[in-house]
Amino acid sequence: MSFVGEGNGAAAGAVAISVATPGDYIALLKPRVMSLVIFTALTGLMLAPTYVHPIVGFASLLAIAVGAGASGALNMWYDADIDAVMRRTSRRPIPSGRITRPEALSFGLILSAFSVFTLGIVANWFAAALLAFTIFFYAVIYTMWLKRSTPQNIVIGGAAGALPPMVGYAAAAGHISLASFVLFAIIFIWTPPHFWALALVKAGDYERAGVPMMPNVKGPDRTRLEILLYSLILAPIGVVPYFLGFASPVYGILSACLGCMFVGLAIQVFRVRTGAEADSRAKRLFGFSILYLFLLFAEILSERVIALVAGLLG
Fold first, then answer.
1. Angle of the 125-136 helix axis to the 101-122 helix axis, nearest 10
2. Backbone angles phi, psi at 218, to 5 degrees
3. 298 — phi, psi (to 5°)?
């Protein structure tokens, strides 16, 4: 923990008092990202054709959530120098001095080991290995390498954020399937337009930090084109669960409508390139992208829950 010294004339030494609060350690876990991981992993788990005991399912999701939090802590440990110069991250626990980098590293490594071994014990070791790979990919491949070396960082690195549905499915079934891979593909293709919409608005932050994000390296116009292209790919991929038969016609209609709206907003971002209105369109796409992913996975999840309940009652 972080310490400050308090001494007096009669005693040599100091009383160590931690300045970190439980909230600071929770912040290291990136709770908002963790909530998305839990949600998508739960969808993958429920998609599996294998019945999972509620206790096993809960423990598996808890392990996956802790693994996601460990990734966040390791990311903040390594990126403390970047976070210190970016407005939206400068108040995080490490740059603000409430937690030291060694503390964050130890915290992240302990949680990583705990999450992987817990998932292996309560579910299966294939899912545990996949979770370990996810943590490694995010903390090492993305954070330590891709983020600072290429404007394609979020494209390749997005695989880490797309893996939780496959981990959840593997926790239930002991293997992965085409259906779980489709969920992975949706998140993987969704990540670039989602993140680049924010990067258009926060380009100054990334420039100060020296992070080669797409708007800073290729320019905002190229970024807008990339957003549109990925959106055009995402829209049909979002409908694939219906065509493969693991989602209902309701999902098919919903995903098609949401995909068209996503493309429409991306076109607006592409067309409006200057002034406050350009930032407004980018923020609107960023906000809608979160709703888009939530509604797709919520529909699949709700359909699986309804089918499960109907099976138990029948």
1. 160
2. -95, -15
3. -65, -40
Assess whether 49 and 133 both reside in one domain. yes
| Token output for 227 | 């957003």
CA 192 to CA 25: how far, in whole Å? Answer: 28
pLDDT computed for residue 19 by the predictor:
77
Three-state SS string across 100-151, please?
CHHHHHHHHHHHHHHHHHHHHHHCCHHHHHHHHHHHHHHHHHHHHHHHHHCC
In the chain, what is the straight-line distance between the N-terminal and C-terminal CA atoms, in Å? 54
pLDDT digits (tens, 9 = 90+) for 40-94: 999 999 999 988 999 999 999 999 999 999 999 999 999 999 999 998 899 999 9
Q: Which among 78, 217, 212 has a CA at the least distance from the CA of 141?
A: 78
Co-location of 38 and 152 in the same domain: yes
- State how far Cα 163 lies from the chain centre: 9
> Residue 9 falls within a domain, yes or no?
no
Could you tell me the residue range of the domain that residue 90 belongs to? Answer: 22-176
* Residue closest to 170 by CA, chosen among 121, 118, 128: 128
Q: In which band, very low, low, confident or very high, does the pLDDT at 17 lie, cut at 50, 70 and 90?
A: low
Same domain, 154 and 221: no
171 in the same domain as 72:
yes
- 5 within domain boundaries: no
Q: Quick check: is 57 in a domain?
A: yes
Do 209 and 126 belong to one domain? no
The pTM of this model reads 0.92
Of the pLDDT bands very low, low, confident and very high (cuts 50, 70, 90), residue 2 is: very low
